[in-house]
Design goal:
Blueprint (H helix, E strand, L loop, with lengths): L2 H8 L7 H14 L29 E3 L17 E3 L2 E3 L2 H7 L9 H4 L9 H5 L3 H18 L3 E4 L2 E4 L11 H16 L1 H9 L4 E3 L14 H19 L4
Parallel strand pairs: 1-6
Antiparallel strand pairs: 2-3, 4-5
Helix pairs in contact: 3-6, 7-8
Length: about 240
Amino acid sequence: MSDNLAGVIKGIVPYWCLGVIAIAAASCLCAQPYPAHWWTPVPEANKPDWEILPQAAKPGEVILSKRNELGILSNFAATPFTLYGKRYASVEGFWQMMLYPESSGDPRATFPGITWPHTREEVGQMTAFEAKSAGDVGEENMQKMGIDWVTFRGKRMKYRSIVKGGVKGEHYRIIVQAMRAKLEQNPKVKKILLSTGDLVLRPDHYEEANAPPEWRYFEIWMDLRSELQGEAAAKSPRR
């Protein structure tokens, strides 16, 4: 246990507990050499209201914090990928792009009283909060138009997937495709995802109750990680 971490802990737990904590921490680090800074406490003061800090992780969990390298797994991250011949700057830009009109013939483009501050192509090249802000406008326009669908490659789909009989919706399937493309086309993403081993991944922001499955990006990453681990195991020589 580092001196810095010990100093933080001394301020929040009785001194006699430090020995127990040190033993537990050492055991975890021996079992799997995860970087200790993934859990380094961050002061609560002045943090954004939306953020869940690294120290909120329970045993066996890690927060996909934008404050360290795990932030590359965020939809906000600038991790370009190509899908169906088109390049996107981030999963967030790809996601929010679907809220915008595809063409001049799209009914969203000509709906009375609706203004679009960006083109669909522009949103697809955005990252992080810029893309999120563009999406906020898109959702507001959807409410004004009274629609609950978005489009991709000319096909309409419900924006918030509903799971029926264990089958997730089309929007979920498309988002998984985008995340898989991000993973396959960005070696650093694959490296960092695999470095999380068997840790339970948790979001660094508060999720709405009963969020659709595509909103739960951390669970999608765990599914993709299991696939990679399975592929690696299959390639390993059997003893």
